[in-house]
UniProtKB/TrEMBL annotation:
<dbReference type="InterPro" id="IPR010998">
    <property type="entry name" value="Integrase_recombinase_N"/>
</dbReference>
<dbReference type="InterPro" id="IPR011010">
    <property type="entry name" value="DNA_brk_join_enz"/>
</dbReference>
<dbReference type="Pfam" id="PF00589">
    <property type="entry name" value="Phage_integrase"/>
</dbReference>
<keyword id="KW-0238">DNA-binding</keyword>
<dbReference type="InterPro" id="IPR004107">
    <property type="entry name" value="Integrase_SAM-like_N"/>
</dbReference>
<dbReference type="InterPro" id="IPR013762">
    <property type="entry name" value="Integrase-like_cat_sf"/>
</dbReference>
<dbReference type="GO" id="GO:0003677">
    <property type="term" value="F:DNA binding"/>
</dbReference>
<protein>
    <submittedName>
        <fullName>Tyrosine recombinase XerC</fullName>
    </submittedName>
</protein>
<feature type="domain" description="Tyr recombinase">
    <location>
        <begin position="126"/>
        <end position="249"/>
    </location>
</feature>
<dbReference type="GO" id="GO:0006310">
    <property type="term" value="P:DNA recombination"/>
</dbReference>
<keyword id="KW-0159">Chromosome partition</keyword>
<dbReference type="InterPro" id="IPR050090">
    <property type="entry name" value="Tyrosine_recombinase_XerCD"/>
</dbReference>
<keyword id="KW-0229">DNA integration</keyword>
<feature type="domain" description="Core-binding (CB)">
    <location>
        <begin position="9"/>
        <end position="102"/>
    </location>
</feature>
<dbReference type="Pfam" id="PF02899">
    <property type="entry name" value="Phage_int_SAM_1"/>
</dbReference>
<dbReference type="GO" id="GO:0015074">
    <property type="term" value="P:DNA integration"/>
</dbReference>
<dbReference type="InterPro" id="IPR044068">
    <property type="entry name" value="CB"/>
</dbReference>
Length: 249
């Protein structure tokens, strides 16, 4: 009985169950959400070890008190210069962990309630910006289409313009997600976009977009990502951001 009580008191087993059993098995959260929650724990656990002076495998659930969590949030805002939005994202992950433990361990219900009383900060909302058509046309003309990479960049920028998809969504579009109609019915083409929370939506593609995508994906395996980098690996969302910034400069 003592061993079982000790097991439920230790934080480590709960973290493992939270990451593998809850996020993946029960919630089936999107890959980026899972990574965000893992990143939060990768920051929180070393912080706790340093502040509490305990080995990581000896940390208990109760060690993550509400006051301790507030210190952690203050630390990442000051030392890591995290934005309010990032701070709130980290707190959401901690709230989720606390609820997971509290729902399965009655002796931790009070601790769960105390942690979940930590409030999110209000963040100022920035105004949505956009490009005028002339500016968008100039951006689309920026890549050097006499080169293979320039053609890829132009197709990617046009795809972003056409679909309004997020960079991460574009990075994960596979050739099999494209439904490219043959000429002269290319205005019936579309793409299946996999969004946040594993939600899907189908977006129509302009004939102009299809004309740029067709040679890009011709004779390639349907399981490959549409947009690849210079080494043939899938472009990441960070690579797409860099690409857009380079051509917008």
């Amino acid at each position: 009985m003592k061993k079982k009580a000790k097991d439920t008191a230790l934080l480590g087993p709960w973290v493992k169950r939270f990451l593998l059993e809850h996020l993946v098995g029960e919630r089936n959260l999107a890959r980026n959400t899972q990574q965000s929650y893992r990143d939060t724990l990768r920051l929180l656990l070393p912080f706790s070890v340093s502040r509490l002076g305990k080995p990581i495998d000896q940390l208990s659930v109760e060690d993550l008190s509400a006051d301790h969590i507030r210190e952690f949030l203050q630390d990442i805002e000051v030392k890591r210069e995290c934005s309010v939005a990032t701070r709130n994202q980290r707190l959401a992950a901690i709230h989720s962990l606390a609820r997971f433990i509290g729902m399965r361990s009655p002796e931790h219900v009070q601790w769960c309630g105390e942690v979940r009383t930590i409030l999110f900060k209000k963040a100022p909302r920035s105004l949505m910006t956009y490009l005028e058509k002339a500016e968008m046309d100039a951006l689309l003309e920026a890549p050097d289409r006499s080169t293979k990479l320039g053609c890829r960049d132009h197709a990617l920028l046009l795809f972003l313009y056409n679909t309004g998809a997020r960079a991460d969504e574009v990075a994960h579009v596979r050739i099999k997600d494209l439904d490219l109609a043959a000429t002269p019915n290319r205005d019936a083409s579309s793409v299946l976009i996999h969004g946040k929370g594993n939600k899907q939506r189908r977006c129509p593609l302009w004939t102009r977009t299809v004309n740029e995508l067709s040679p890009l994906v011709s004779s390639r395996d349907s399981t490959e990502n549409v947009f690849l980098n210079r080494t043939g690996q899938p472009l990441t969302r960070f690579g797409i951001h860099t690409l857009v910034e380079r051509h917008a400069a």
